[in-house]
């Protein structure tokens, strides 16, 4: 409860939402603890909100938490007023998002055999690696855009709001 005021805590407690308290002196962020609790309780999907804020270290840590959910076999995403962030592996599609801007960046050291269909900049059998961010600001051009990955994991940032 190191980031809530006593008033905010009182308001939340009054709604009937379960509040679990942890010491502010801990080795995990509040979001990390909440994600692990959701996994432990059997969540079948996780949506993380208020996760990009003004602290880049926390925002980046939250992207890494998407990987933790991925390893547990649970689809997870970060959503704020301007973007949606998900991890992609195997074959994934964006439907009814024509005109949306999407950035694709490697989460793993190398991502291989990348094929993009339905984008302004399509790829076939391409490779991305950390340190060469050439997947920024692509645009979906079809009703159904498909990303296929042979090996590795991409972070997809789908711009949904005004701040593009």
Could you provide a short overview of the structure?
The protein has helices at residues 6-13, 30-40, 56-71, and strands spanning 46-49, 76-79, 83-88, 91-95, 101-106, 110-117, 123-129, 138-139, 144-148, 154-159. By secondary structure, the protein is of the alpha+beta class.
Helix and strand layout, with pairings?
Layout: H1 6-13, H2 30-40, E1 46-49, H3 56-71, E2 76-79, E3 83-88, E4 91-95, E5 101-106, E6 110-117, E7 123-129, E8 138-139, E9 144-148, E10 154-159
Parallel strand pairs: 1-2
Antiparallel strand pairs: 2-3, 3-10, 4-9, 5-8, 5-10, 6-7, 6-9
CATH topology of the largest domain: Rossmann fold
Given helix and strand content, the structural type is alpha+beta
CATH architectural group of the largest domain: 3-Layer(aba) Sandwich
What is the beta-strand fraction? 25-35%
Mean pLDDT: 92
What is the highest CATH level, the class of the largest domain? Alpha Beta
**What is the overall silhouette?**
elongated
Q: Identify low-pLDDT runs.
A: none
Characterization of this structure:
It is built from three helices and ten strands, in the order ααβαβββββββββ. The two termini are 33 Å apart. It is elongated and about 55 Å long. The strands form two sheets. Strands 1-2-3-10-5-8 form a six-stranded mixed beta sheet, with helices on one face. The longest helix has 16 residues, at 56-71. The protein has helices at 6-13, 30-40, 56-71; strands at residues 46-49, 76-79, 83-88, 91-95, 101-106, 110-117, 123-129, 138-139, 144-148, 154-159. It is an alpha+beta fold. The model has no long low-confidence stretch (mean pLDDT 92). It folds into two domains: 1-80, Rossmann fold (3-Layer(aba) Sandwich), CATH 3.40.50.10240; 82-164, Rossmann fold (3-Layer(aba) Sandwich).
């Amino acid at each position: 409860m190191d980031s809530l005021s006593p008033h905010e805590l009182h308001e939340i407690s009054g709604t009937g939402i379960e509040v679990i308290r942890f010491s502010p002196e801990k080795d995990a962020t509040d979001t990390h603890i909440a994600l692990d609790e959701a996994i432990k309780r059997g969540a079948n999907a996780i949506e993380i909100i208020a996760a990009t804020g003004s602290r880049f270290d926390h925002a980046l840590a939250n992207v890494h938490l998407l990987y933790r959910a991925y390893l547990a076999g649970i689809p997870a995403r970060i959503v704020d007023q301007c973007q949606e962030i998900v991890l992609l592996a195997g074959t994934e599609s964006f439907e009814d998002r024509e005109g949306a801007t999407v950035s694709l960046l490697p989460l793993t050291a190398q991502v291989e055999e990348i094929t993009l269909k339905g984008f302004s900049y399509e790829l076939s059998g391409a490779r991305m690696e950390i340190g060469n961010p050439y997947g920024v600001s692509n645009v979906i051009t079809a009703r159904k855009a498909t990303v296929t990955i042979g090996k590795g994991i991409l972070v997809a940032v789908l711009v949904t709001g005004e701040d593009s």
